[in-house]
């Protein structure tokens, strides 16, 4: 999660903008803050929680200043303001790690329902922070937001994958990515000055994050529990049958039940695994390596860097500063459209084509974007080409890597291993999230716009790995996918140990 330069006098939390970026306008600032949140790959509630608070950085920092003055009769120092703001931003990541670790402690649906309590409490604390004159409430609220996001990232894709028919599992799995982008666009729109983007409204804007939680509390109880969880984990045959009839109808429930029974028979004698047990199990070694690599790449592929440069390329292309927030909404809408398109194509083209193709296109965009940034002042056409590269990169990400990663995490494991796999994947994702925010400023300082050559290496390496090592999972049961990995185990074992170690270290 890379944060762009802030307005005012306090220094940027995560680094300086590219040369030529014009600072000092709240509209331009808001544009970058909301759009950077696109990398959090989650549900509508999660992205809404994140984008609305970062939309109002300028107002939140003014609030911190005024609160400090009231308490201590002096202005807060630049370093102090930066520290408090960076704490508000980064504590979300800490909460996400906590949420991942507790994500599978209850039943699947029970966890999702309970998780809304974190969102409601967070909205209450953040909404009351201004009235209470306490920026500490913002910090606690952001921590609770992170816990909510971590739990949802771990459980929701797993729930969608388990309740979906095999033929529609990819399309339903894309629901997470689709509503992620809807959440991003919603946060951007709500943060416009015409709606709740004014100084006097920022506490209400933060409090609106409880709306998606209330909607989920209203509708989710009517949804069935995961049939696989009921049948395999709880041994509740009758409950499983009722859930399958509710999900698939009477005619389709028998086939789904046979699939679940076959999976359970294959897991006789196996207990639900812990993450460390899954990491030590050589029989699922390549599945674990795959989810680690894909989830790390989801954060390290350069999307954060691309959004860091969008303000610059928009300004260079002649878009007025006060119109940049609307251009940002346009990029969010484009990604939302791409996620929806991916949902329509995932069962037609398959997972492997979409995610590998997405990374290949992102690799090409990295090269083109580097060239157009280097030639910004050569011709008036190059700023427009940079804008085109921004849109192409975002669309390529949404076409495959943004949505298919969670689907593969669901499909590569059977019931006893899946919760642990999501904990591992979620932990890697959040740690990579933190790592890119910590390291990216130094990459920009050292390489400037040539930093995209680093991301080119990441994207191209992941694309090669996907093409070489990951089988197509479309229209296959979880058991069939596991057997396919087992059958190809001898082929993959011919890789030297050094190559395997390199893959693991690269993903981490």
TrEMBL record:
It comes from the Eukaryota. It is found in: Cell membrane, Sarcolemma; Cell membrane. It catalyses: D-fructose(out) = D-fructose(in). Residues 39-474 form the Major facilitator superfamily (MFS) profile domain. It is a multi-pass membrane protein. It holds the Pfam family Sugar_tr. GO terms for biological process: D-glucose import; dehydroascorbic acid transport; fructose import across plasma membrane. InterPro entries: GLUT (IPR045263), MFS_dom (IPR020846), MFS_sugar_transport-like (IPR005828), MFS_trans_sf (IPR036259), Sugar/inositol_transpt (IPR003663), Sugar_transporter_CS (IPR005829). GO terms for molecular function: D-glucose transmembrane transporter activity; fructose transmembrane transporter activity. Keywords: Cell membrane, Membrane, Sugar transport, Transmembrane, Transmembrane helix, Transport. GO terms for cellular component: sarcolemma. The chain crosses the membrane at residues 40-60, 80-100, 112-131, 167-189, 201-223, 353-375, 381-408, 420-444, 450-470. Belongs to the major facilitator superfamily. Sugar transporter (TC 2.A.1.1) family. Glucose transporter subfamily. This is Solute carrier family 2, facilitated glucose transporter member 5.
């Amino acid at each position: 999660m890379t944060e762009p330069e802030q307005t005012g006098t306090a220094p940027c939390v995560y680094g300086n903008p590219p040369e030529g970026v014009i600072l000092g306008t709240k509209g331009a600032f808001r544009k970058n803050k909301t759009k950077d949140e696109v990398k959090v790959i989650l549900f509508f509630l999660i992205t809404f929680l994140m984008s609305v608070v970062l939309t109002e950085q300028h107002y939140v920092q003014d609030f911190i200043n005024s609160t400090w003055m009231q308490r201590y009769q002096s202005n807060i120092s630049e370093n102090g303001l930066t520290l408090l703001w960076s704490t508000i931003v980064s504590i979300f990541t800490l909460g996400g790690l906590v949420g991942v670790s507790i994500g599978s402690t209850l039943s699947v649906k029970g966890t999702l329902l309970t998780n809304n309590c974190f969102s409601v409490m967070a909205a209450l604390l953040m909404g009351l922070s201004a009235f209470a004159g306490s920026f500490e409430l913002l910090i606690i609220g952001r921590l609770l937001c992170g816990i909510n996001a971590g739990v949802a990232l771990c459980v929701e894709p797993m729930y969608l994958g388990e309740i979906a028919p095999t033929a529609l599992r990819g399309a339903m799995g894309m629901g997470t990515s689709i509503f992620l982008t809807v959440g991003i666009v919603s946060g951007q729109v709500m943060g416009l000055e015409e709606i709740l983007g004014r100084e006097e409204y920022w506490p209400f804007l933060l409090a609106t994050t409880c709306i998606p939680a209330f909607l989920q509390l209203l509708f989710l109880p009517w949804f069935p529990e995961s049939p696989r969880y009921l049948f395999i984990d709880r041994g509740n045959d009758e409950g499983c049958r009722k859930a399958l009839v509710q999900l698939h109808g009477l005619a389709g429930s028998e086939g789904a039940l046979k699939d679940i029974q076959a999976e359970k028979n294959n897991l006789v004698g196996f207990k639900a695994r812990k993450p460390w047990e899954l990491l030590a199990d050589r029989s699922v070694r390549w599945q674990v390596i795959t989810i680690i690599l894909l989830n790390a790449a989801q954060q390290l592929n350069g999307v954060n860097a691309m959004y860091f440069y969008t303000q610059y390329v928009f300004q260079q292309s002649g878009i007025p500063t006060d119109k940049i927030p609307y251009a940002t909404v346009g990029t969010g809408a484009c990604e939302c459209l791409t996620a929806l398109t991916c949902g329509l194509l995932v069962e037609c083209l398959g997972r492997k084509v979409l995610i590998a193709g997405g990374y290949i296109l992102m690799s090409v965009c990295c090269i083109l974007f580097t060239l157009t940034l280097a030639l910004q002042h050569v011709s008036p056409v190059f700023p427009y080409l940079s804008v085109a590269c921004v849109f192409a990169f975002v669309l390529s990400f949404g076409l495959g890597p943004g949505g298919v990663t969670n689907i593969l995490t669901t499909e590569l494991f059977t019931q006893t291993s899946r919760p642990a796999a999501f904990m591992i994947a979620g932990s890697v994702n959040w740690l990579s999230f933190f790592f890119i925010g910590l390291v990216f400023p130094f990459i920009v300082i050292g390489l400037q716009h040539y930093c995209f050559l680093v991301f080119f290496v990441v994207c191209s390496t992941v694309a090669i790995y996907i093409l070489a090592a990951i089988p197509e999972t479309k229209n296959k049961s979880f058991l069939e996918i596991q057997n396919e990995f087992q059958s190809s185990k001898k082929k993959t074992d011919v890789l030297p140990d050094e190559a395997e170690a390199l893959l693991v270290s690269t993903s981490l």
